[in-house]
Amino acid sequence: MKDNIINILKNSDKALSVFEIEDLLGVKDVESTKEILKTLHELEEETVIYHSNKDKYMMLENSHLRRGIMRGNKRGFGFVEVENSDDDIFISQDNMNGAIHDDIVLVEITSKMNLDRLEGRVLKIIKRQVEQYIGEITFDSKGIGHIKLDDNKIKLEIEIPQNATMNAVDGHKVVVELTKHLNNNLKYEGKVIEIIGHKNDPGVDIMSIIKKYNINTEFPDTVKEEVSKMPMEVLDTDLEGRRDLRDWEIFTIDGDDTKDIDDAISIKRLPNGHYELGVHIADVSYYVKEGSPLDEEAMERGTSVYLVDRVIPMLPHELSNGICSLNPNVDRLAVSCVMEFDNKGKQINYEIFPSVIRSRKQMTYKNVNSILEDNVVPDDYKEFANTLRTMQELAKILQDMITRRGYINFEVNEAKIIVDEDCVPLEIKVREQRTGEKLIESFMIAANECVATHVYFMNLPFIYRVHETPQDDKIRSFLSFVSSLGYKITGDLTNFKPTTMQRILKQLDDKPEYKILAALLLRSMQKAVYKPENIGHYGLASTCYTHFTSPIRRYPDTTVHRLLHTYLFDGKIDMPTIRKWEEKLVYIAEHSSSRERASVDCEREVEDMKMAQYMENHIGEEFEGMISSVTSFGMFVELDNLIEGLVPIRDMKDFFHFDEEHMTLTGERTNIRYRIGERVIVKVVRASKDDKTIDFEVIRKV
To answer: Alpha carbon of 541 to those of 248, 497, 509, 684: distances in Å?
Structure first.
């Protein structure tokens, strides 16, 4: 019945009454009418259809109503993101109707604010997605607790009765659940369900953010029990069916502090002059059995989370730093992808197989870069120096090859925050991406493509890392903005292939604001996600891509290993197996993408907080930076160490007009104009670790 009614409404060019729906269904009896009315009510509750004041029904998508997710702003207004639509809907503070950040809402479109933005009002909160809230508790004279929420985008008043405080005291950071709606839209009664710690205690600031994103920090007892029974060294019985590579020259290259080592590499020059590259990845799925408590917890976490002073691992340390980590001079189980490349980077042959390896050395990027860039070889690297140089040759060939096909290198910088033992930031600098880092990246891309392509042509269920083609209008909007700066992009711009993006970046790379323009272009593109369908990876210009190389820290990679064992090594490709994975991979892909987003957002929020904390000690000091964004409420300036702060328009010593098309601010009296990419000297006037904000004042242009 439900599907039939939806089909009727979808194919109708007007709203229909119950009687018209009855006629089209061909039913007239009382029982059928009751069922139709019940189904229409269910569809209305699910916000699939719209029931008008004239007692007629139509598909929601054909009405003036939209369903979407509220994205709140700390100033009280919000924007509703509508699924499958580029247009978000502005909601003024007066029209929020009690909705808060992350609520799923039903919105009525009321008008257009301007040419490209809709305005509306919230009619109904369909679902409140946030179930727990994080904040600081303080008590009034009557002993009632009041919560100052960490997330200033959420406008709620929460009171905690005396019997629901868990004995918290003033200044405790707490996790709160709502228990009762009080006398207005935004006032609730709640209860404390967890005390994180006092706001001034070391580490509590980061833990509060971790809790906000529902990231598990403790492993359940069932997982601990399972891990306690695992052998922490490779046994003879583990070697059955594995190729023994323990006499190969295999080693790892990672950061100085890395303890969870997923990948090892090897290389040989073949008699025909080709390169034989081995990428050997920790065989995590051998230890993490499908459906076990350990596997269920890893799937729930989805990914390890890397914060400034800690790692929240996907797997317990006994595995992530121990039996699964490819530590030097010990036997480890791996899945090896051994590929033959010619001198132009074309893959000639490959093998994928289970193996046992013994890494010869745990190398660091710092020492590898010393060898490859400066020809300075530490004593304990001398026996590997020539092998590293051969790897550098192949890496350069592979980099040139993927660049020719359209690989887009945005060269996005990342900040490295140095903290003391209490996690107080001491220094913030740009994390370098040098020769060694690029070498490993090239080899991992090659292995990921090889594995993905192999399974793709087997026509079996699989999980892919996909990156969709950007939408034309967003790229054209970017090009229009670039043109407004006086820069002309030449060449064929009728088809936005990866090579087109390359050409755009190349024509901008000598411009002073290149870094900002590259970031704007990147933001105009879609985000990479996991899917059980292969639609290619636009940014890598790859027709077929997956994540195979980091199974210790990413659940999709663990799943890829499990599928390799199932299909390739065990030969299980029967219909029940295929049907099981067709169903299971839909959830794994969607959930993994969701947990990846939460992890990235958590990492960014922690960085923002630590940057603000760092700048609290630099109030009044001057720095040089570049204008990274211009808005109606001010402009953002990014310093050379990637710290970004706002120059609020309310603090600027003139009345400034905002030009949205050209993204400029122009002073009415002084006629001073600020635009993206200009370098300025700014003074730090405010910084708040709690609010994660930094405010600058412009001193002068550079």
So the answer is: 33, 9, 20, 42
User: Beta 117-127 vs 89-91: how paired, if at all?
Assistant: parallel
Q: Which residues are CB-neighbours of 579 under 8 A, at least 6 positions away?
A: none
Evaluate whether 381 touches 367 at the Cβ level (below 8 Å).
yes
- Point out which residues pair with 464 in neighbouring strands: 531
- Cβ pair 599, 305 in contact under 8 A: yes
**Which pLDDT value is given to residue 97?**
87
**DSSP H or E segment with residue 134:** strand 132-139
The pLDDT of residue 118 is 82
Q: Are 80 and 91 in contact (CB under 8 A)?
A: yes
Whole-angstrom CA distances from 24 to 12, 27, 59 are: 11, 8, 16
**Are 489 and 482 in contact, with CB atoms under 8 Å apart?**
yes
CB 80 within 8 A of CB 89: yes
pLDDT at position 115 is 47
Question: What is the distance between the alpha carbons of residues 27 and 43, in angstroms, rounded to a whole number?
Answer: 19
Q: Cα–Cα distance between 201 and 223 in angstroms, integer? A: 29
Task: Tell me if 329 sits within 8 A of 358, measured CB to CB.
Answer: yes
pTM of the full structure: 0.86
Residue numbers in the chain where pLDDT is lower than 50: 115
Crossing angle of helices 221-228/293-301, nearest 10°?
120
Distance from C-alpha of 509 to C-alpha of 518, rounded to nearest angstrom: 9
H helix intervals, 617-690: none
Asked if 553 and 314 count as a contact pair (C-beta separation under 8 A), the reply is yes
* 473 backbone φψ class: left, alpha, beta (φ>0; ψ -120 to 50): alpha
| Nearest residue to 580 (alpha-carbon basis) of 290, 298, 293 | 290
Residue 477 — φ and ψ, nearest 5°?
Answer: -65, -40
